[in-house]
Amino acid sequence: MHIFTAVLTSAAGEPGDAWTMVVIPGEIAGSFGGRSTVRVRGTVNGVAYRSSLMPDGDGGFHMMVNASTRAEAEVEPGDEVTVELEIDDAPRTVRTPPDLNRALQDDPRARAFWGALSHSNKRLYVDWILEAKEPGTRAKRVSETVQGMRDGKKRER
Fold this sequence. Notes:
The chain has 2 domains: 86 residues, Beta Barrel (Elongation Factor Tu (Ef-tu), domain 3); 53 residues, no CATH class. It is elongated, with a radius of gyration of 18 Å. The chain is of the alpha+beta class. The longest helix has 16 residues. α4 crosses α6 and α5 runs antiparallel to α6. The mean pLDDT is 87. Helices cover 36% and strands 25% of the residues. It has a 7-stranded antiparallel β-sheet with strand order 1-7-4-5-6-3-2.
């Protein structure tokens, strides 16, 4: 487990920017090796998170701190935070909503594409479905998701 303090910064340098991050200190970044993304877990001011360290191109890493973690930790860009992090080697899974699961079971082609999607892309689809407030909207989104899987489409952010 690595523990350090850092200042939350806006990725674009603007206080209201949605992309907020911490720069991983060099001595800690060096312990994660090379140039690829590293999945991590830990806390930001005591609030649990799962995230990834992203290479900065100069041998270092930064880690995005999403809005829900910032809200729960009651911090914003410019604040100093205490970060605990370690490698996250636990499998990342997305709980497929029952209605989507039933629809995928009826379409082998869509089910195969769904099974090959990354955790992040599955999460985008599931979150979009779960955000629907009306049953009709949710059913339409499930149908569109299955069609997208059948057509081999990944969901864009």
